[in-house]
């Protein structure tokens, strides 16, 4: 009973936050609503006793991804989004995509609901099991190949995006620490004896 | 203590007794933390004073001990000024966004074998998530102030926190490999024994990297570019007065204490005694010196707090590009390298841990 009350509180916060993401005109407010949505999703996962996934969601999305989002939004200095000009143009596509996602979810729920009952029993029985350990063991034994491939793709993405943005400019006044340390006063300062003129 | 509470409130449901018990623990920790911060500020001003060959605060109370309390009262009584065209909502919210994660992180800190508010399974991850959450208070404060200086401060803070969080996370990976658990209590238990069995010896580079990135995460000298009073006035909190400023100050010092206590727990054996494992002490009348207790944790924490202050008095501030190159090009490679070394040590069975 208590769990259900908590669930519905979090679920309604999640829905409000998700609506906030698309309804706020100020992009910073939208980004902060998205952060709230991520945190509330994490809370919902905690209710399912998936503490590892919940904390990793908060750690990765809230702790790193959204910081960069906010960074970009603030740097671009968009204080007010322009009037929703393209709204009518985008709306049909958006509604279509929304319907596809909804249909997929419903299909998953109705057609394959018998497979979910197995999952439920796992989440109920894992009261004393450390699910970080469980996930780690599964990932590094059974699913090692797909895990490694995913990691490799991410590494590739990092290298590619760095190589796309990396550019070397000429005439940049850059500090070269090794040159500074190697500097020798004998090469820099020339002591000169100046003849003193008579007065 | 809990038995006493249970017998006293036996007419209540055990669920409610648990709730009251947790709430009272939280209250004790919070009050102790705030008192710690009050005297930490005094300690800092005194220590830096003597390092600069000054006396430091010496007017309010005996030897100036009540100076911080006087300052707090002054700050609380001052007017809260909200700048024109500032974003009121985030301007008022962001000090709390910094303070709440700073306090919430203490929930998983094991003070002694008996006293942990919540010994959760993913304690280490929880800490990492909460320390990274604090950056929003800084970013939003700078943005909401509608001031160029504050905004520059918050941009610097964002880049710095993201960079140093990675090094910090990798250092924690090393600890969890050595400890074999994400539970902080079990990590301390894995270090049981004397000074030589603590993790600071096998994980020495990670220990140094963790503390350095901890300083960077708390925006303290020499990494306090987000404040940088010589360049951008006071950085992200330049527009805050009165209680808003006081909360930023409080959060910064609580975070300092958190990093100190975590360094002691993860690398210096937490509540374990310095003298544990010395056989002639264990059998003599001084055997109480070898017992694990809260006292040892406090001594270690106090030492790291002193190091924070010491560094502040000793080093000039880093330049922005130096800060970034230190984070990305020095600290992260060191941690990755040492995790590799640790893997080899683990397989070869060198080191204090057992499989």
What labels describe this entry?
heterodimer, A: 199 residues, mainly alpha, Four Helix Bundle (Hemerythrin (Met), subunit A), 75% helix, 0% strand, B: 355 residues, 2 domains, 65% helix
Structure write-up:
Chain A has 199 residues and is mainly α. Among the domains of chain A are: 1-80, Four Helix Bundle (Hemerythrin (Met), subunit A) (Up-down Bundle), CATH 1.20.120; 128-165. Helix content of chain A is 75%, strand content 0%. Chain A has helices spanning 2-23, 27-47, 51-76, 87-111, 113-125, 131-141, 144-165, 177-182, 185-188. In chain A, helix 1 (2-23) runs antiparallel to helix 2 (27-47) and helix 2 runs antiparallel to helix 3. The longest helix of chain A has 26 residues, at 51-76. Chain B is built from 14 helices and no strands. With 355 residues, chain B is mainly alpha-helical. The two termini of chain B are 36 Å apart. Chain B is globular. At the A-B interface, helix 2 and helix 3 of A face helix 5, helix 6 and helix 7 of B.
Task: Chart the SSEs and their pairings.
The complex is a heterodimer of chains A (about 200) and B (about 350).
Chain A: H1 2-23, H2 27-47, H3 51-76, H4 87-111, H5 113-125, H6 131-141, H7 144-165, H8 177-182, H9 185-188
Chain B: H1 2-8, H2 14-51, H3 67-77, H4 88-104, H5 123-133, H6 135-144, H7 148-179, H8 184-190, H9 204-217, H10 229-232, H11 242-267, H12 279-283, H13 294-314, H14 320-348
Helix pairs in contact in B: 2-3, 2-11, 2-13, 3-11, 4-6, 4-11, 6-7, 7-8, 7-9, 7-14, 9-11, 9-14, 11-13
